Amino acid sequence: MKVELEVRGLHCDGCARSVERAVKRLDGVLDARADHRAGQLTIQLVPGRGDDTAVRRRVEDAGFEVVG
User: Model-level pTM?
Assistant: First the structure.
């Protein structure tokens, strides 16, 4: 399952890598790609195991803001 989130605070490649690492550690996340230019995070979740609420929380814990 693919989830796309708008994320504020992604100012550089380092920010993008930071949020990717944080999200990839969650159970049920197959892949995470952040684009700091677009302010977007794309996540591939295992259907039935991935939790987009946990992803949002993890992004915010890493110091970024999920919009919407």
Answer: 0.90
pLDDT digits (tens, 9 = 90+) for 17-61: 999 999 999 999 999 999 999 999 999 999 888 788 999 999 999
Residue ranges per domain, the chain? 15-41+49-68
Burial state string for 9-19 with b = 16 or more CB within 10 A and e = fewer than 16: bbeeeebbebb
Contacts of 57 (CB under 8 A, 6+ apart): none
Task: Judge contact between 42 and 33, C-beta under 8 A.
Answer: yes
The neighbour count for residue 59, using CB atoms within 10 Å, is 24
